[in-house]
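Shipment paperwork, digital attachment
Item: protein structure file
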Amino acid sequence: MNRNKADFAQVENLLGSGSRKQLRNVDAFISDQMMIFMPMIGFCDLAVESPHSHPSYLFIITLNDPLYFEFVSKKITVDAHQLFMIPPAVIHREMARDRFTRYIAVFIDEDFFKTQLSHYPSAAGVAQKRQFISMPFETMSLVKEFMVEIDNQLPGWEQIARATSVKLCHGIIRNLLQMTKVNESAVQCLEIRNTIDYMHAHIDQKITIEALAKIARMSKSYFIRNFKKETGQSAINYLNQIRLEQVKRLLLEERQSMTEIALACGFNSAAYLSSSFYKKFNMTPSDYQKLFKKGDNV
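Attachment content:
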């Protein structure tokens, strides 16, 4: 363990069996109710050496690559950007692969988690089985907030860490129960609108899905799904559409060369612009100009 802000007894309360040596590759952030592990420089030896269980709830947050787990009677793949719950006392083992994969392991005290779960009458049985959910964007924000508080330990950090733990528990439970906030759709629509405004304002620049997802405060996969839901098309197609519409306007003005128009609209060359324009409108940019010189409409 690279961090040890608490006595190792706190680790054992949430982790169960395990030694410092087995955790040598793990970065740890620990409070009484919650503990976050991040394998940083190699596999967590405890996770891969032999089947084991924990006295706490374990929530695995995958990052950019899938993880593979073995249970008593089943093997499971946890895809990238998913959250996977393993209840207390469930025997499991991470299956090591050729390449080390980073992920975040959130351990939450059983009684603490069940206390938060007691606020949901419909949650009977939900916490007794392995479950997958798509990782909500706010989950990572809360995880980061918890880590910062544990790491800095400024005055009041214990209260903030506990409050963050409570909020994270409720976020996870609501997603397990597929509970949607009443205004969530409106907020998502606003965030998608912000990315569209960004596209228009930076039409001449390179724009990536990752950058748009960050502006929308969503994971990449969540952003992709929600953008298509709100607009009916992918973000890449939408960006290409508004770029080509701007190309049409500049073509009609006839004040810039094809290369200047291409660069002003985010295309890296006149040839690429011509190819994209023809694919969309079934005519070349110069053909488009000629049509309007004749007074025709497209």
